[in-house]
Specification:
alpha+beta; Beta-Lactamase; Arc Repressor Mutant, subunit A; 3 domains; five-stranded antiparallel sheet; two-stranded antiparallel sheet; 7 strands; 10% strand; elongated
């Protein structure tokens, strides 16, 4: 491995100190954006090599992240650079991390990630981990996570090239946002609105659904300025406007297929932060980060291949086909929203969920017809069909003959009265 372009000894000392103070796992890694892989330089991460996604190699504990994990952290490194040095994200198993880049001469040469961390309150039932190897997660309040992320960003700056100050860049982005909002406010004052600017809201929603962060940010700033001027004239405070927009953006992410639990968790975390903010510039910047979070979650859905999840879904179907299972059941089993799972399943498998489920059930029924003396009605029930007439119709559609004739011909249904099936 090539030597890192920064003082690794100093970096490890600083990150180890950060881990001791925070109580959270830390990892320094070099992302490869061409292959979506990472090279871990240092880790005391709480999950690497332990969860089901990771590779369990005792002799190579540093590089224990599996392919899906590496792609997630690699993408997060890119976004941490793009979003001014502080980025929150969830891994494939929905565990919360935050990351910052290490920048040398204006280029990111490595990244630091911290996690997993649970931001639920300690007495919240949702904070219980389903993974015994990782239970319990370190628990932090949303405010503490925000503060630790700021400190991590400062660590990244110190390790890298301090002249490329990410904190300074963050301030510049904040100032840019405020200028855009101010310009919209002034324009609205000169030409007062007669109605809510639904076209701006629609542009913001579409940008989130398209995972277009740049357009989403621009549309948000214009909408914040326009709507703020409109509502302030009605005596409505800016934080009320932002709360409404958060709901709109959350729906956009849900419509794009993001899991409801992920959206609600992010919404609650940012609302909690919003409730503590007083200045309008802080409130608007909080909203911008929330919009970026929604767009990234949509982007992650589209970037990840998810073949492992489809295999898990197929395994679930084949293990439960004889029961009453619905698309929602399988989507929940593999951790997707039903709408997104339906689209993903058809794209990967080549048929929709119900067609595939019926195919599995008919294959089981064919085996039973040839190997048992059970009645057609009994076989229909054991294969997962509640209605024998529906079973017969689907069987004939897929096989070419009715179940009784299939049994009588001992499965030889290639020809029927000189006509292919």
């Amino acid at each position: 491995m090539d030597e890192p372009l920064f003082n690794m000894e100093q970096a490890m000392e600083m990150i180890e100190s950060f881990g001791v103070v925070s109580g959270l796992g830390t990892t320094i890694f070099v992302p490869d954006f061409n292959t979506n892989t990472v090279k871990v330089l240092y880790t005391d991460n709480a999950c690497a090599g332990k969860c089901s996604r990771c590779v369990h190699h005792e002799e190579d504990a540093l590089n224990a992240w599996g392919d899906a994990c590496q792609k997630t952290h690699c993408t997060a490194a890119e976004f941490s650079e793009r979003f001014a040095g502080r980025y929150f994200y969830q891994c494939i198993e929905d565990r919360l991390f935050f990351a910052t880049p290490i920048v040398i001469d204006g280029l990111m040469v490595a990244a630091i990630t911290v996690g997993p961390v649970n931001i639920f309150e300690p007495d919240d039932a949702a904070s219980e981990s389903t993974d015994a190897q990782l239970d319990p997660f370190p628990v932090c309040s949303p405010k503490r996570v925000q503060d630790l992320a700021n400190l991590l960003s400062a660590c990244g700056i110190s390790i890298g090239d301090s002249t490329q100050s990410n904190l300074q860049l963050m301030r510049q982005i904040n100032m840019t946002q405020q200028r855009q909002i101010h310009a919209s406010i002034q324009a609205t004052k000169q030409n007062p609105l007669s109605d809510y600017p639904i076209e701006l809201e629609n542009r913001l929603v579409k940008a989130i659904e398209d995972a277009d962060v740049v357009t989403a940010r621009s549309a948000l700033n214009e909408l914040l300025g326009t709507v703020s001027a409109y509502y302030l004239s009605q005596g409505v405070k800016i934080d009320g406007v932002v709360n409404d927009l958060m709901v709109v953006c959350s729906r956009a992410a849900l419509n794009a297929g993001v899991m409801g639990t992920q959206v609600i968790e992010a919404l609650n975390a940012y609302r909690s932060e919003l409730s503590r903010l007083k200045k309008s510039d802080q409130i608007c910047f909080c909203m911008q980060r929330f919009v970026e979070r929604m767009a990234f979650m949509v982007s992650r859905l589209r970037d990840v291949n998810y073949e492992d999840d489809i295999y898990r879904a197929i395994g679930y179907i084949r293990s439960n086909y004889n029961k009453k299972i619905m698309l929602n059941d399988v989507a929940n089993a593999v951790g997707f929203s039903p709408a997104y799972f339906s689209r993903l399943f058809k794209k990967k498998v080549g048929s929709n969920f119900n067609t595939y489920l019926n195919t599995v059930r008919i294959e089981a029924a064919k085996n039973s017809l040839l190997s048992t003396d059970l009645t057609v009605a009994e076989i229909a029930s054991l294969s997962g069909f509640e209605d024998v007439s529906y079973f017969t119709r689907i069987f004939k559609r897929q096989v070419g003959v009715a179940p009784g004739r299939f049994r009588a011909r001992r499965g030889q249904v290639g020809k029927s009265k000189g006509r292919s099936r």
